[in-house]
Target: Ig-like domain-containing protein
Amino acid sequence: MVRRREARRASFTHLFTTLLWLVTCFNEFNAVKIVKIVVPEIIQYGVQDAVILDCDYIYGNNTSGLVVKWFFRNKARPVYQWIVSQKPQDMGILRGRVDLTYKASNDPLKMHRALRIVKPNTDISGDYTCVVSTFMEEDSRTKQMIVFVPETNFRLIQNKTDDDTVNVICAADGAFPAPNLTLATPERRLDGVSHELKLVNGRYSAVASVTLLDADLPLPAEFICTLRIPLAKYAVRKEAIYYPGPISTTPEMPTAADMQLAAAVGSKGEKSLIRISLIYVL
Model:
């Protein structure tokens, strides 16, 4: 009796394993699978005329209903769709911005799998999801692309006040994504720094400022402002030398824009003493 039960159990296990193997083989035989998605991680605005986002895949014998879709930031609505045997379509934020004649492959089932976006701007920064599907299977992959813009105006000014203090002000305009500004000396990062960040016409303006006592500073003192755009893996810094006490020489006088910035931050004085060198750290 026991032997019969064991034999039945072994037979059932073998049958189940065989059926599972057959189902797996059937799925693989008809599967569609993305093998590689190529999305540039970072591109600089204005450097290239177009950018290509590619989504390569393999498919089985059953390709009925094969569709390639690209989604931007979320999966609610596609920004690109190609149904095999039909013309590709661009939609949403990419409408009129995709080269619909571009062919990523000569394979008629892969021909229009990729996006060739013309004149990429900062508004198309974000996550891109490629979805390839048939009536039987579906696969998806997601990657992020950042279109970044370096700062157009980066300055470090020191505005001398009447009560033996100095306002150190670092400002940058025209950057994207949002930049981070830090003020420091060669020895340490400065405390008590206030920050402002504004988005104007799709570009960020940032200001960092701090007021320091002359009595707490060495002679001379060196200030360093570093601008970072973490999402773009970009950094640049500017340095200035400051001499506490009475102003005796002025190697570089502040511009009208510098004085307006100092006034906006709340400085009282009218002069700055600056020696500046610009260093890029990529």
Remarks:
- DSSP finds two helices and 17 strands in the chain.
- Confidence is low (pLDDT under 50) at residues 14-29, 248-254, 267-282.
